[in-house]
Design brief:
Length: 286
């Protein structure tokens, strides 16, 4: 056996031992966490039939000969969607919440990120203060923010907007300043040698490098905010989630299914559109 083969076998043995140890550690952590949280796979397995029974209850009863009858005929599509005049405006409100909160968050996070980055010559105290603030904002989940704002401002779209915007600012600022810190410093040094100001270095050295990442993260956050806004409605923060919770509480099973279908359709369309827009803006694709 050659020296290379012996070296290769030794490295392979070390990798196998390391993989085995990490696997055992992860399994131990998973079992310990499950025991502390009273997580039981057997209980989930035994409860699955009840879950599927509820799903079956939410499915509408449609009859093919009556499919396109009027809204007063049971078994028709119109009868199933009799609450669409209420649900469609709520879907639009949910989308508006996502767009408005994302736009505000992107602007604020972009400004904060340049002051929080370690390679923009920002004073350490300012950098630490901004990083601590955004860490707190993203540590608090949107649902917790929404509950507090509902208590303060009442039920409506304002609590949902504030909750989404604050959490998005915390998440996007971290992503943005990490993107700035990963940018090349060669253009910065070149502009500094020419006597460019700090603002000019940010504008002409950092921004062209990080712009594609900023846009990608912004589009991704828009998709996340729409999904989150449907959840926030469950606590009275506006949007289609409020309608979903009402239907569940009132046992309007058929309306639960059509509300979920609307959410899935809009999320799919939003994903498709944001992906196309991302390619157009970031990659310059047609």
């Amino acid at each position: 056996m050659s020296d290379f083969e012996r070296y290769y076998q030794r490295i392979r043995s070390q990798q196998k031992r390391a993989n085995l140890l990490w696997s055992l550690l992860l399994v131990t952590l998973w079992l310990s966490a499950g025991q502390l949280a009273e997580f039981d796979l057997l209980t989930i397995w035994q409860s699955l039939p009840q879950f599927f029974d509820y799903i079956l209850q939410t499915l509408p009863v449609l009859h093919l000969p009556l499919l396109f009858a009027d809204g007063k005929t049971a078994g028709s599509l119109a009868y199933w969607g009799y609450r669409l005049p209420v649900q469609l405006p709520l879907i639009w409100e949910t989308l508006q919440l996502a767009i408005a909160s994302t736009l505000i968050a992107v602007v604020v996070a972009a400004v904060l990120a340049f002051f929080a980055a370690g390679n923009t010559q920002t004073p350490a105290s300012v950098r630490l203060a901004i990083r601590s603030l955004v860490a707190f904002l993203r540590t608090m989940p949107e649902l917790a923010w929404a509950v507090m704002f509902v208590m303060a401002f009442g039920i409506g779209a304002v609590p949902g907007f504030l909750a989404l915007a604050l959490h998005a600012i915390g998440s996007l600022t971290k992503l943005f300043y990490e993107a700035i810190e990963s940018a090349s410093d060669k253009p910065v040094r070149g502009l500094a040698a020419c006597g460019a100001s700090k603002l000019q270095r940010m504008r002409f050295a950092f921004w062209p490098q990080v712009k594609p990442l900023f846009l990608s993260y912004s589009f991704m956050r828009l998709e996340i905010n729409f999904r989150s806004s449907t959840i926030l409605g469950l606590v009275g923060a506006g949007g289609i989630g409020q309608e979903l919770m009402t239907n569940i509480k009132l046992d309007r099973h058929d309306q639960v299914s059509i509300t979920l279908l609307l959410i899935v359709l809009v999320v799919s369309l939003l994903d498709t559109f944001s992906g196309w827009l991302r390619r157009r803006v970031v990659e310059g694709a047609g």
